Amino acid sequence: MRTSRRDFLKKTSIYSAGILAAPALASSRPLAGANYGLQLYTVRDAMAKDPAGTLAKVAAIGYNSLEGATYNSGDEKFYGMDARTFAGVLKKNGQVMRSCHYRYGEDSKGALLTNGVFNGTILHDWDRAVEDAHKLGLQYMICAWLSESERGTLDHYKKMAHDFNIAGEKCKKAGIQFCHHNHNFEFAAQGGVYPYDILLKNTDPNLVKMELDLYWATFAGQDPVKIFEAHPGRFPLWHLKDIRKTPDHDTAEVGSGTVDFKRIFKYKATAGMKYWFVEQDHTLGSPFDSITKSLAYIKQNLV
User: Which SS3 state, helix, strand or coil, does residue 224 take?
Assistant: First the structure.
């Protein structure tokens, strides 16, 4: 039986009072000047080896607004560090972690498990994840990706929307906004209906917003501008990466491919965009060279 909204609020009243009493360790106030965002998945290999050194290198390139790629199941830490330690590293580099990616938690394949479940996810130990996010000063917690087994039918997406609403309610009590990050499979129609539309229509607009990945939406044949116009204000976060002008249409540096960023940025107010993050899944050379090129284009042409 699904928990009713009234029962849910009763059960979380004590939880919310406790979490709001815990101080955030890292400020989420706007940075002085412009916010130049990077999703750390782009430099994931370097972060795995030397997170502190990598963050310093990213800061030197010019990225001061960050999005985490992982909150590890099992240890439930940020790149091997607890919230206090990680906040100290960010502060040293003059950086703010705006948001972080999380998993839905149905598919535990390849995950670090605690007591047989995929912890630190929307479905498992979400309270702990929200608490740590609050301590770090995150503004957004994002469902990052759905494994193939987690996608399923439209009815399953409706169930997922229900779970997102509950997760979003818990985030809201901690002063955090819940979001969902798309790929291309949310735009694979089932009976003429997009799963992405199911998520949009079956979630509370105040509890669940969207991080639109401009690459994946465009790759799937969608027009981001039309998506913004259909659901104004639902897209506070964007991922910026381009579509390579090669047969594989892989990810590329911003401004080097086929995505019309200049047109899309004209509709940032319609979208409700607050922050953007450069993300490049694959690079032909050093990811640090790629993010340098992307930032140079963005500064010259978009912001």
Answer: helix
Residues 96-130 have pLDDT tens digits of 999 999 999 987 665 555 666 677 899 998 999 99
Mean pLDDT by 10 residues, the chain (303 residues): 43 51 56 86 96 98 96 77 94 97 82 66 93 96 94 96 98 98 98 98 98 98 98 98 96 98 98 98 97 98 97
Phi, psi of 210 (to 5 degrees): -125, 145
Q: Which domains, ranges and CATH numbers included, belong to the chain?
A: 5-301 (3.20.20.150)
Max CA pair span of the chain: 54
DSSP, res 64: -
Contacts of 170 (CB under 8 A, 6+ apart): 12, 15, 16, 126, 127, 130
Nearest to 76 by CA among 97, 100, 54: 100
| CA count, 13 A, side-chain hemisphere, 89 | 20
d(CA 81, CA 89): 10
The β-bridge partners of 114 are: 117
Task: List Cβ neighbours of 146 (8 Å cut-off, separation of 6 or more).
Answer: 104, 160, 183, 185
Please name the helix (run of DSSP H) or strand (run of DSSP E) that holds residue 181, with its range, or none. Answer: strand 177-181
